[in-house]
Specification:
6 strands; about 40% helix; single chain; 7 helices; Aspartate Aminotransferase, domain 1
């Protein structure tokens, strides 16, 4: 069945009138859109996906509890506990570093925090952490407090908010020039409240 075009789309005068009406609506929409603030696009609003609640198994619960502050078994133990746990080669480096730190700051105290041997000293009725020995895959790092320490030897690495570190691969690295001075400076700066 073939219908005339006018029967399908309406008479020609109707189509012309609708075209004029559409163009006038577009013009008003353009002007009114300029005068009011733009709304955020729908893609910018965040919608929580369905079923996005946290669900833990018993194994995950215990791991999360530890990461959320439940103490480790060695937390607060003497720092020597963390040093004795290290493999033989790294233990020698750590013992040499420990001796150097105690030589530079005789009043320091070492305790295990975050699984590392951390050194603190009393300053103005509060203990502040100034150094920590941390195990890495290839050796040890000595993390020292302060981001603006004077380091003419260029030993410091890292971009942390409150600490930098020095890498040690052998016992000879402990005796490099500048290590002692960095420990002295860090013990004066320290990090309060840790």
């Amino acid at each position: 069945m073939n219908l005339p075009v006018a029967a399908v789309h309406g008479p020609a005068w109707y189509a012309e009138g609708m075209a004029k009406k559409r163009s006038s609506k577009k013009a008003t929409a353009r002007t009114s859109a300029r005068s009011r603030p733009r709304a955020k696009p729908k893609s910018a609003t965040r919608v929580k996906p369905r079923g996005a609640t946290k669900r833990f198994t018993k194994a995950k619960d215990s791991a999360n509890a530890k990461s959320m502050g439940e103490s480790r078994g060695d937390f607060g133990q003497p720092g020597s506990v963390a040093i004795e746990r290290l493999p033989e080669g790294k233990r020698e480096i750590a013992e040499t570093l420990d001796a150097l730190i105690r030589e530079v700051e005789p009043d320091c105290e070492s305790v295990v925090k975050w699984g590392n041997c951390c050194y603190s000293v009393a300053r103005q009725s509060q203990r502040i952490i100034f150094a920590a020995i941390m195990e890495t895959k290839s050796g040890l790092n000595l993390a020292v407090a302060g981001t603006k320490l004077d380091d003419p030897e260029g030993l410091l690495e890292g971009t942390g908010k409150s600490m930098r570190h020095v890498k040690f691969r052998s016992v000879d690295d402990v005796h490099r020039p500048g290590v002692r001075e960095l420990i002295e400076q860090a013990s004066q700066v320290g990090i309060e409240g840790m």
